[in-house]
């Protein structure tokens, strides 16, 4: 595999026409990003082009001091089968070989055990690049990818590109809490934008941005467009286009956090995936975050960030002085599996198996919920991801009793069913954080999040039966 | 192996006396650290104590969706032998097994492939804890360890515990550049403290701290005490005690970055390691950073941070919203190797082999340097690490020619020998950064760093011969 060219698309004559470059987003950069420099020691690498150069420059341990001399893994090919007897397996081995940070072939052991270059191992980047080209076909020329330690790491680095202390970020009104806790210690203020079942409302986003003072404009929007956490909603194609149009109109950066992209199970075409915001991006204003967490394993801590090359370079500089790069062992396993031992065919078979598995679990959850929860709460059938979001039909009398959501949650615990209470995903303004009581905060969010990814079918059924008992005991759905 | 108790030491009667707790360092915390909170979703874990609880809470993929079903490695036991025929090998295998985040046994595959807890896998933490207890015997009760993605990650998190934009950190006058580039984008100002061959000078540190204004006091000192990068110097026991005394006197935090701790090769007792600053710390003011980068492999991206438990908890919160934890695959390899397949005996044999290997390379470099460079430059024989630091004997006439160090460096490149020029390690004040020219900056640092860790013996010899030719051509050592 070679790094693909992304500078071509077809014009009206069917001839390849060059894509335009990304727009210059320099004016939006944070102070921290403007002050990022390459690691000084890495600037010496350019002198290594001379074949007769002897380097006493790099403070690297020699690979002869690395005790690992072979790394192997056994991988199950076919998740879609539940019959253990049908399982087939692939083996991969990472063997010793000379250090090489230029080859796009799956790396030898010496390359993955040594220090890297802040971008990820070339073969892993080649895989990421090919995935982006194949699935998202970016519409500007100078896009690039950089390895991250997963989307939590990627989000931190994306938000630090554009935000200093005191800046604000527009987020979905029900928001992934780790994103909020990433921003708050840095003094970055998340501001909630209203959603409907198709995600963030474009007009609400526009209104919020226009209300901000011009000396501290809002520059960044954080979105989970597919199988959103916690609501399970997926933005429709039209909604994505409308949000992108607002971003163009008001010169906003969109951070597209898309860990559930491959866990889509739409009605109709089973393998028809929604177009990403990146795929609509003609300007280079989308920072796309992807991860192997939900499609290979979270413990690999391996993901990638796609953006204009100038921004990717700043993320590389940030990597050099933080994580350096993801674990070489994780990268080696991904590279050998996806580029060699499985290849595209094995990868696609695996993804199809995953989608089949998640769809089955989603359908099972839906059947139980329709039987047990109809009338007690409302929900939208998720078309992606791993979450149902129950909006409780709270009776009027209960709504007057402050702290009722805390009591519903505690009653769930007593009944031995754990769901995540809605208030954990609520985004309060800095003023609300200090003025509202815990009871008031909880009552603002009469919702519960249920994951259908982890527990077995019979446990999911029992859990929903218990939840229904709790909601009935609070007279949900009456009046 | 169980997590050791660290609450006891022996008093004068030989009876165990309880150690005091760490002093409260809350007043020194940064705004960011004060605003760190636990990941909200992880606060639900406490409800999982009920055996009959069914959780739809955690948004985790089920381990049946992880394609990896076995992970194996082959490890070479005896680095000290250069004879391939003498090599012996150990194999390790990580097999499937139920998710368990409480056991201190080497983890099954399901545990390392799943999301972790921000602290590292229990067995890996148990190893770190035992190493700290055995080698450093902390002198306060409530110390703790947390896994990092290596010391670059650890340093970022340590400095962010105490420093906001505008704060200053005292550093060695010749300083590891990645540490400087970690701080500068965050608006944290490194201030150089004079060194001699035993490292940072305590009186110079005291003077600098006392000169700072009281509304923005200097609170943090960054040190590489053993085999310092770039000077190769190791702080003597007395120097360590003196620096710690200044830290106590002026209420400073010491960040002890010690990646070369195990690469010591002192004269006399070969395995007598210098006492760490942590081992002298009665107050809980030392943040100790260690890594497997130089003793197993950099590509594992696995290290650990030791500090009072309250500070470790804040680093855990920081992990939860950045790296989450090091790669589970890296952690699994370390845990199985060090706790099971090698155990302590294999680990000690490996470390002895490493020290033997580095000592041989150091001695070879020293012999060549004594033959070729005597008179041309000065250096101190390093007792640890991987670096020689050459202070050039620049003739008086050359010193008057601005930019001479740049010309010496370029001449080295022409002769095809790469060393790191001293200016890459120089710490300029913010004012100097803007007022000094590149030539002036380079001439402030008439030094070159040479690593003896990476190239083969004959290449090291050739490199030093070439360097000597360059230095003679500039008439170094004359006048």
From TrEMBL, chains A, B:
<feature type="domain" description="Aminotransferase class I/classII large">
    <location>
        <begin position="126"/>
        <end position="423"/>
    </location>
</feature>
<dbReference type="GO" id="GO:0008483">
    <property type="term" value="F:transaminase activity"/>
</dbReference>
<keyword id="KW-0808">Transferase</keyword>
<dbReference type="GO" id="GO:1901605">
    <property type="term" value="P:alpha-amino acid metabolic process"/>
</dbReference>
<protein>
    <submittedName>
        <fullName>Pyridoxal phosphate-dependent transferase</fullName>
    </submittedName>
</protein>
<dbReference type="InterPro" id="IPR015424">
    <property type="entry name" value="PyrdxlP-dep_Trfase"/>
</dbReference>
<dbReference type="Pfam" id="PF00155">
    <property type="entry name" value="Aminotran_1_2"/>
</dbReference>
<feature type="region of interest" description="Disordered">
    <location>
        <begin position="1"/>
        <end position="20"/>
    </location>
</feature>
<dbReference type="InterPro" id="IPR015421">
    <property type="entry name" value="PyrdxlP-dep_Trfase_major"/>
</dbReference>
<comment type="similarity">
    <text>Belongs to the class-I pyridoxal-phosphate-dependent aminotransferase family.</text>
</comment>
<keyword id="KW-0032">Aminotransferase</keyword>
<dbReference type="InterPro" id="IPR004839">
    <property type="entry name" value="Aminotransferase_I/II_large"/>
</dbReference>
<keyword id="KW-0663">Pyridoxal phosphate</keyword>
<dbReference type="GO" id="GO:0030170">
    <property type="term" value="F:pyridoxal phosphate binding"/>
</dbReference>
<dbReference type="InterPro" id="IPR050859">
    <property type="entry name" value="Class-I_PLP-dep_aminotransf"/>
</dbReference>
<feature type="compositionally biased region" description="Polar residues">
    <location>
        <begin position="1"/>
        <end position="10"/>
    </location>
</feature>
């Amino acid at each position: 595999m070679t790094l693909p060219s992304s500078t071509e698309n077809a014009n009206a004559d069917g001839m390849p026409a060059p894509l335009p470059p990304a727009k210059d987003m320099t004016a939006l950069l944070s102070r921290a990003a403007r002050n990022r420099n390459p690691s000084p020691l890495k600037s010496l690498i350019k002198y290594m082009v001379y074949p007769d150069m002897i380097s006493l420059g790099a403070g690297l341990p020699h690979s002869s001091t690395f005790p690992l001399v072979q790394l192997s893994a056994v991988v199950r090919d076919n998740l879609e089968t539940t019959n253990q007897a049908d399982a087939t397996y692939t083996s991969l081995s990472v063997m010793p070989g000379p250090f090489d940070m230029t080859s796009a072939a799956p790396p030898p052991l010496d390359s993955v055990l040594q220090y890297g270059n802040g971008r990820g191992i070339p073969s892993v980047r080649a895989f990421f690049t090919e995935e982006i080209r194949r699935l998202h076909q970016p519409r500007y020329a100078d896009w690039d990818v950089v390895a991250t330690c997963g989307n939590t790491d990627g989000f931190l680095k994306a938000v630090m590109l554009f935000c200093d202390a005191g800046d604000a970020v527009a987020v979905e009104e029900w928001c992934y809490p780790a994103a909020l806790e990433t921003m708050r210690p840095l003094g970055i203020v998340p501001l909630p934008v209203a959603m409907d079942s198709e995600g963030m409302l474009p007009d609400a986003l526009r209104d919020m941005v226009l209300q901000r003072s011009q000396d501290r404009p809002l520059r960044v929007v954080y979105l989970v467009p597919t199988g959103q956490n916690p609501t399970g909603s997926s933005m429709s194609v039209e909604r994505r286009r409308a949000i992108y149009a607002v971003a163009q109109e008001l010169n906003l950066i969109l951070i597209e956090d898309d860990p559930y992209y491959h866990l889509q199970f739409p009605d109709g075409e089973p393998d028809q995936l929604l177009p990403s915001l990146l795929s609509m991006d003609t300007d280079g204003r989308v920072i796309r975050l992807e991860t192997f967490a939900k499609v290979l394993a979270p413990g690999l801590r391996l993901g990638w960030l796609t953006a204009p090359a100038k921004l990717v370079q700043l993320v590389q500089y940030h990597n050099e002085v933080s994580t350096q790069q993801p674990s070489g062992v994780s990268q080696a396993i991904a590279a050998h599996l996806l580029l060699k031992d499985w290849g595209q065919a094995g990868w696609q078979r695996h993804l199809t198996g995953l989608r089949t598995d998640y769809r089955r679990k989603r359908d099972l959850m839906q059947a139980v919920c329709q039987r047990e929860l109809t009338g007690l709460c409302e929900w939208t059938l998720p078309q992606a991801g791993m979450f149902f979001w129950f909006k409780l039909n709270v009776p009027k009398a209960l709504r007057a009793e402050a702290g009722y959501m805390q009591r519903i949650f505690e009653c769930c615990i007593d009944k031995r069913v754990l769901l995540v209470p809605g208030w954990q995903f609520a985004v309060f303004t800095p003023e609300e954080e200090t003025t509202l009581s815990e009871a008031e905060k909880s009552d603002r969010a009469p919702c519960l999040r249920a994951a259908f990814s982890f527990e077995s079918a019979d446990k999911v059924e029992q859990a929903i039966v218990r939840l229904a008992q709790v909601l009935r005991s609070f007279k949900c759905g009456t009046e």
